[in-house]
Write a structure and sequence with these properties.
Chain lengths: ~325, ~500
């Protein structure tokens, strides 16, 4: 009896200690436990503010990913702000204690320029993505050349067998850089296509994610002889593809897409899309942070960083005419 | 105070149990308060920002008042509020990768800018730079609007985060509550088992002692000692109990020995008393018996002389034998006499009996007188035995009766036998006769004859149960044999 009681006591004591240990561990490791400071999170040297359009398309998401990757590798912190129509947060950026600003500005107007100058006046370095609005030793332009973009569109268009091509080019407010440098894009196209370009028709979509369908319908009604439609936004590409399928014009009207979303690549593989232009948004985000840190630490950096452009075409296309580049 | 004493042990075990319980309850209380703090803290930061926002709004009114009428009271109020807001903003703002924190950090810088802007406006107002302070005021308004928007965003973000985590928090809280309940139950059981162990340590030995006491009360002193390992007091009690058991055992053994000895002494004394009483009675009896024989002896001598004078020879012989018998009886005052004396007396008695029963009684003496010399026997045993046969063995018998007296030696045993061919004895009578009398047996005046002889034999040879034996058969006769071990001394001085 004595032995049993002693055994039970020992057992209960052991269980008590185990439970106490578990409770203590639970208490210490409580994920909701408040911390008075942020010392648990490693400190960073610089904080950079990214101002990007309030869009969740993959392009900007990749820019964010690239920036965050660079922040992790380069001992920086990054905060993202949406560019609102009133641009108030952008306007107040100079007061926010940031060490650098990266902006993808889609509204090239005086207010934007004034805000950029206000930031520069505070000695804060600026990275301008795709579109350069102000220029100073404290600014960097990162992105793709509009001329190169035009040339890439033309290269894909040249894969078709028709000797003369009517090309419809759809700009978009969602990609203001290309729209702003429309002349450079068109020069690039013409420099490659030469005599094969019969007529170039240009249209423009807004921020509305589905208005590309209406634009396509209107263009095809107006100019039924259009052979190729080139898009400058990935969302517009997806909407245009669906419109062509609905109009039963697959094969008759070719599409040159924009972006490397999985769906677009699938359509390329199926031959619905002739090819797609891919910029390197991750690289853009990464290079933006790297440039800001370089300016913060050394005081200067390259004024222009070209992140390049890729073309994706159907793998079954004739050799030398396309393929993934 | 000894470490192993009951008091210290009780205090120790109670203290341990209390400490366990208090510790467990305290731990759970602290844990609960901690959880409450966590819940409070989750909204504390948002609350602080709201307060900061309210202070900034409060700042607007004295600023406008000052800019309107340059009131010193408004200025004082304004400066006070500026300092209050500045104190609320943390001066150290390290950078980390937490987006929520970065947003707050930006707000702190915006508030710094806001306060600087207010100071700048005050200076511009003092300097009467109207255009500049109006522009600055516009900028301040934008800044204020942006700060409010940012704080709202922080609050909204915080609220969303808290809302998302609320379910997890509740799950964790519930888990902690269950675990703490289990902890309390186990702690209570643990404390209870500790106390039980203590109680068992005391009651266990007590039960053993109780069992031992029960055994002792039943007279079993062979029960083994109780050896316990308990508190000092109980250990001492068990030790004392063992010693007490040994002492009682020893005392009772001594008492038993003493009682046995006393009993032996008492038995001896009783035997002596009985012997003494018998001796006295026998002495009295002898004295009484001597009185009458002397008178009769003298009378018989007178009768013999008278018979001689009258020339009655037969009567003279009878009277002479009778006188010889009486002389024999009177002469033997000792307990033991030579055997030839007894035979001599028997012959006188036989001569008388031949005159009385000349046709119906025959006495046969079957022994060699010369061979019997040197042997002794209790006095007056042969004549009473023969007399008994003559008186009782031949009642209602018309034929000749024979009484045979034989004396012989069987190794060291002298066997004296008196047998007859009479009617025999009933078995009940034989059993009664052969029963030795106890000391309280009431001797009567009739204790004579056969019974007298038997009891005297038992008296002289108490350890020799076969000293006398009666063999009888109904209608065939009786033999009474006395067996005297010649090497055994009788228990009386001769």
């Amino acid at each position: 009896m004595d032995r049993l009681l002693r055994l039970v006591t020992l057992l209960l004591g052991a269980i008590f200690l185990v439970l106490l240990f578990i409770s203590l561990r639970l208490m210490i490791e409580d994920p909701f436990l408040p911390s008075d400071d942020n010392s648990a999170i490693p400190g960073k040297s610089f904080q950079y503010s990214f101002f990007l359009p309030a869009s969740d398309n993959s392009f900007f998401q990749s820019v964010r990913d690239g920036a965050l990757q660079a922040a992790r590798e380069l001992d920086c912190a990054v905060i993202f702000h949406s560019l609102s129509p009133d641009n108030l947060s952008f306007e107040m950026a100079s007061y926010s204690g940031t060490n650098g600003v990266a902006v993808f500005s889609y509204q090239k107007n005086q207010a934007t320029v004034a805000n950029l100058e206000k930031i520069l006046k505070k000695g804060i370095p600026i990275v301008q993505i795709e579109d350069e609005m102000v220029s100073s030793p404290n600014t960097v332009l990162i992105g793709t050349s509009s001329y190169d973009s035009g040339k890439s569109i033309a290269k894909i268009a040249m894969l078709t067998e028709k000797p003369k091509l009517n090309l419809g080019l759809i700009y978009s407010e969602k990609n203001p850089a290309l729209r702003a440098d429309a002349s450079l894009v068109e020069i690039g196209i013409k420099s490659i296509m030469g005599e094969r370009l019969k007529t170039l028709y240009t249209e423009q979509t807004t921020f509305n994610p589905i208005d590309a369908e209406g634009v396509i319908h209107e263009l095809l009604q107006r100019v039924p002889a259009v052979d190729i439609i080139a898009l400058t936004d990935s969302n517009d590409t997806l909407v245009a593809i669906q419109a062509i399928i609905d109009l039963n014009l697959v094969g008759q009207v070719q599409i040159i897409g924009f972006g490397d979303e999985r769906t677009i690549q699938d359509y390329v593989d199926k031959g619905v899309v002739l090819g797609t232009i891919v910029r390197n948004p991750t690289e853009i985000g990464y290079r933006a942070v790297a440039a800001l840190k370089e300016m913060n630490t050394t005081g200067n950096t390259s004024a222009y960083v070209n992140t390049g452009i890729n073309i994706i075409t159907d793998k079954s296309a004739p050799a030398g005419a396309g393929g993934i580049q | 105070m000894k470490r192993n004493s009951l008091k210290v042990r009780l205090l120790l075990y109670l203290s341990i149990s209390m400490v366990i319980m208090v510790f467990s309850l305290g731990f759970i209380l602290i844990y609960s308060l901690d959880l409450q703090n966590i819940a409070f803290f989750r909204f504390q930061e948002e609350h602080d920002f709201q307060e900061l926002q309210a202070r900034l709004t409060d700042l607007q009114q004295p600023l406008e008042t000052y800019l309107t009428d340059r009131s010193s009271a408004a200025l004082a109020r304004l400066l006070f509020l500026i300092e209050t807001v500045r104190e609320q903003v943390p001066p150290a703002r390290p950078i980390n990768s937490d987006p929520a924190y970065l947003l707050k950090r930006e707000v702190y810088f915006l508030i710094d800018a806001y306060l600087a802007q207010v100071n700048q406006i005050i200076e511009l107002k003092r300097g009467r730079k109207v255009t500049e302070y109006i522009d600055s005021y516009n900028e301040l308004t934008k800044l204020s609007t942006h700060i409010s928007a940012q704080i709202d965003q922080i609050s909204l973000h915080g609220f969303r985060v808290q809302l998302a985590e609320y379910r997890n928090f509740l799950t964790l809280f519930r888990r902690i509550q269950y675990q703490n309940l289990l902890l309390i139950i186990v702690a209570t059981a643990f404390a209870y088992s500790l106390l039980m162990q203590m109680v068992n340590k005391i009651t266990g030995p007590m039960l053993q002692l109780s069992g031992m006491a029960s055994q002792l009360s039943n007279g079993n002193f062979d029960v083994p000692d109780v050896h316990v390992a308990s508190v000092n007091e109980v250990n001492q009690v068990s030790l004392a109990f063992n010693q007490m058991k040994e002492s009682i055992h020893h005392y009772i053994s001594e008492l038993q020995k003493q009682t046995e000895m006393e009993q032996q002494v008492m038995t001896e004394r009783l035997r002596n008393l009985r012997m003494e009483q018998l001796l006295k009675r026998m002495e009295l009896y002898t004295m009484q018996a001597q009185m009458n024989p002397h008178f009769l002896f003298n009378t018989l001598n007178t009768g013999v002389q008278l018979a001689i004078v009258e020339e009655a020879d037969k009567t003279a012989d009878f009277m002479e034998n009778l006188a010889a018998l009486f002389r024999h009886n009177i002469r033997e005052k000792k307990f033991f006499v030579p055997l030839e004396h007894e035979i001599q007396g028997l012959k006188s008695y036989y001569a008388i009996l031949q005159i009385r029963f000349p046709k119906t009684l025959r006495l046969i003496l079957d022994f060699d007188e010369t061979a019997l010399q040197g042997f002794s026997c209790p006095a007056m045993i042969l004549q009473p035995l023969v007399e008994n046969s003559v008186l009782h063995a031949f009642s209602h018998i018309d034929r000749m009766g024979t009484v045979t007296v034989s004396v012989r030696r069987d190794a060291s045993v002298l066997v004296i036998s008196v047998s007859d061919d009479g009617i025999g004895m009933p078995p009940e009578l034989v059993r009664d006769l052969l029963t030795p009398h106890t000391h309280d047996y009431q001797l009567s005046s009739k204790v004579m004859g056969l019974e007298n002889v038997i009891q005297r034999c038992y008296f002289f040879y108490p350890d020799q149960k076969d000293v006398i034996d009666i063999k009888t058969t109904q209608g065939r006769g009786t033999e009474i044999a006395i067996r005297i071990h010649t090497e055994v001394e009788p228990c009386i001085e001769l």
